[in-house]
Amino acid sequence: MKTLIDSTHALIGGLAAIRRQFNVPEQFPPAVLAAADSAARRQPTAHADRTDRPFVTLDPATSTDLDQAFMIERSGNDLLLHYAIADVAWFVGDGDAIDREAWQRGTTIYLPDGRAGLYPPVLAEGAASLLPAVARPAVIFTTRIDGDGNARLDGAERAIIRSSAKLAYDTVKASDLPADFDELARRIEAAESRRGAARVDPPEQEVDALGDGRYQLLFRPRLRSEEQNATLSLASNIAIADALLAARTGLFRVMPEPDEQAVQRLRQSARALGLSWPEMETLVQFEKKLDPADSRHAAFMLAVRRASGGASYVPYRDGIVPWHAPMAATYAHATAPLRRLADRYVVRAALAVANGQPVPPEVSAAFEELPAVMARADARDGQIDRNVIDLAEALMLQGSEGTTFDAVVTDADEHGLRIQLCELPIVARVRGPGEKPGDRIRIKLTSADPLQRRIIFERAG
């Protein structure tokens, strides 16, 4: 972790330049804002009253665009996860001004100094957000989790809910959560292990705003409460995907597994990092032993993520089972409709399928168009994230030219060495043959240019 004091407003200026470069929208067109104001006043008329149920939300403390609320109850030996998802489609009509703008954006864009929402704030942080102590329209997906952690969609309905608490990852206590929250997460994680899932979650490099012109650059590992909360979305998304696949419709999230050549390279990386990976042990089995708090393990987890290739969206096709290798399952995105365009359509399809109704033709048509739209949005978001990190790294090191640092090699390819500084949360490249992943080297900073968002190191000595 490292705090940046942006006394000259260089970071603010740099973030503004990133927004311009990637055409991050500064505001919504007047027609979209007017349509959103009108939509926010729309009263739910197709929803059951479930305001007596003890739903809660669990998110980062500062979040106001709340997609999900949940409650858990027992049914014999099974657990029923009632997962309420913001009913964005109640407010947004096909082809209206809000919808057309959302298709242009694809996702909510997050930067340290604010976000560019998928939907106007009056909806995303107001009428459609599952905020506490207010009635909100939602689609409740009920997923049955058996003793082995297998998930099956039991039903779906439009309903009015009233969340009783807005819980935060970093402050939540066990007593704040439903009684079976830990047990539900345990079952789902056990099912992941049995089917050979390998969700790789290395610490993320982030820039966070602290206020008063202060920012911090850090590697942020996921909190246990965040990991457990992710299992709720995981189980719901798998259950929804299975239901859609059985109905021969849907939009799925897919991701390939590393090929054999990539696995062999990973074995070399593990040896270089001093990690013991038995020859008879698969990559999935080995990953289960990794601890993201260990820098060597975290470096290997990053290598696995790079070797796996990117995730993408595909519509249903006859005879093809869409597969997400890290999940070891057929998987869909349905639980973040305030932040991802595709989820709104998956929610609509799953609601129809669960109630024995045909999927609306406009939803089926959208499934064919969404993969390209979401691919562009995902690529843009990744570029923005990388440029923000590059800017913060250059600002942190500006004025330190000539200083030497200890670093660990995390990867090596034809472009040189990828390194992670030992004293600072910085990842960079340096030219030089001979070293392998896991080797420690000394490097010297030769240039740190915030305007170009670029830092240059050379080998010391």
UniProtKB/TrEMBL annotation:
SUPFAM superfamilies assigned to the protein according to its UniProt record, in alphabetical order: Nucleic acid-binding proteins (SSF50249)
Disordered: annotated span: 39-58
Pfam families: RNase_II_C_S1, RNB
InterPro entries associated with the record: NA-bd_OB-fold, RNase_II/R, RNase_II_C_S1, RNR_Ribonuclease
Domain RNB: 47-356
PANTHER family cross-referenced by the UniProt entry: DIS3-LIKE EXONUCLEASE 2 (PTHR23355:SF9), RIBONUCLEASE (PTHR23355)
Name of the protein in question: RNB domain-containing protein
Lineage: Bacteria, Pseudomonadati, Pseudomonadota, Alphaproteobacteria, Hyphomicrobiales
